[in-house]
Specification:
The chain has 228 residues and is α+β, with helices and mostly antiparallel strands. The chain has 6 helices and 9 strands, in the order αββββααβαβαβαββ.
Amino acid sequence: MKKILAVLLILTFVFSLTGCNEYHKNDMINEMLIYVNEKYTDDTFQYVSMSGGHMGSNVTKIIVASEKYPDKEIRVICTEVDGEKNFTDTYLNFKFEEQTREYIKDKLQKEFGNNIYFKYVPDDLACTEGGSSETIFEEYINEESSHIYISVAVPYEVENKEAVNNLLQNIFSDIALSGDIYFFDAETDIDADITEKIETKQYSEKVYISKTETEEKYQFEWSSEIRS
């Protein structure tokens, strides 16, 4: 009999904890929905599912559905430190996705022509700092925390790295991004097989461009020295 009572007490305690955790989870989800709906007043968001983190940790992540971008997995993240809650989200990455892609692609084509490979996929995990319904595109692409990453392949003979560095500085002067630029021989046709050529390192040169907080804006890491 005592064993039965002990088991019942344990089950009651477990169900009680489960109920409390479920209540806390729903309460947190409501707070996160209030945050994102109040932040972007020109859109409406609804809860979809949890996304990483777990109840009891200091980080809670959820996916929300946007009325304007229903096919995008927008994440809202709450981090609790010493009782203080900090909310962030990935909304602007998707709001400006097409505009970012076309803007950068246009800049590259003006310099290198239409025979290029360009890939940009918005980061669905990185959260831009700040932001609101009033944030404009020019502010977003120049924000250090926007996490814009690109991959580019162009037919271009690299003869002087410093000259190419200056060229890329000028092309991306109003954008905060990072990414890989692959240079192929000038006669190369940048076609559907270019990703395979990149993977098998058939390019002549490669440079990784990344943001800095200096006046130069970017730094460049070349994969090899220019051939003489």
